[in-house]
Amino acid sequence: MPRLSAFAALALVPAVAVALAGCSGSPSTSATSTSTPNPSSTAAAETQSSCAAPSAGTASKSVKVTGKLDAAPTVKFDKGLSVTSTQRSTVIEGSGEKALTGTLLDVAFTIYDAKTGKKISTAGYSGSAATQFTVSKDLYLAGLVDGMHCAQVGSRTVTVADSADMFGTTGNESLGVAAGDDMVIVMDILSKVPTKATGTTVAPKSGFPAVKLAADGKPTVTIPKTTAPKSLKLEVLKKGDGATVKSGATVTVQYQGTLWRTGEVFDQSWGSGPTSFSTDKVVAGFKKAIVGQTIGSQVVVIVPPSEGYGSAGNTTAGIKGTDTLVFVVDILAQG
């Protein structure tokens, strides 16, 4: 599918913009893949009672964290901290639902290099832009996900992540992380974000593809047996009551892209989880569809080639230079 690999999904975390994501992306200006990440095999069977968090250990218990939830913490630990497998302790016990695989969360976090003690990144605390992550090792590095997975909403966790679950044997030169360095992650699980549009239903316009929604919100699109319009067309199927999306903002969405020519899906977030990206990192037609809309809305946009992938198309994704695209987009959050 046309994706920006790791770049778009972490636009809301400037200091680690290409580091924490695995294979997430967006309807990008350049395609890099045609496959949709499969959801974790445990997602379907996982329940509130069966969800199992990583175990605490000597290393995670040794990290001293003080401060209130949603406020930047004070963190103290001895440099050179190391583990052979990832450990997680809970500093503040929440009372909300557990964050199962596939859950979209508002979070705040601070990440340190466990060997050097260097602060790598911090984001999402009160007074700064919100940060959303999906609990999915298909989308983010395993150590980051371990800081959220099965934690109750309202919790603060401290994770000492084994290097194999973070930057591995290559490290990350741009962040100053050496090969083999373990990481300390302090994660605040602030709230659960809906994974589908929650706005008020709006009557569809004539001439648009028909959209049928599954119980989980995943759309099935039926293209009309007519010639595609020559200009961009937009309809709102659900009108949210949240904030208005601004140009250049980081948004979290569920989306599906379909070719008008064939009726085939060429790209989607459904099956891997909501994805976050800057509105400046997507094709022009997709940006026009979401900027100015409100959080909680679902929109359908018909994108002509000139506002999609242009005359070159995208052979990797099966998009010709003459192809019109149809996107169904659930707008979930804005950073």
Describe the structure.
This protein has two domains: 38-192, Chitinase A, domain 3, CATH 3.10.50.40; 200-334, Chitinase A, domain 3. 5% of the residues lie in helices and 30% in strands. The chain contains three helices and 17 strands. The protein has helices at residues 58-62, 142-146, 284-290, and strands spanning 64-66, 74-76, 87-92, 104-113, 119-123, 131-134, 156-161, 183-193, 200-201, 210-213, 219-222, 233-239, 250-259, 265-268, 275-278, 298-303, 325-334. Strands 9, 12, 13, 14, 15, 16 and 17 form a seven-stranded antiparallel β-sheet that branches. A hairpin with a 5-residue loop joins strand 4 (104-113) and strand 5. The two termini are 24 Å apart. Residues 1-18 and 30-43 have low confidence and may be disordered.
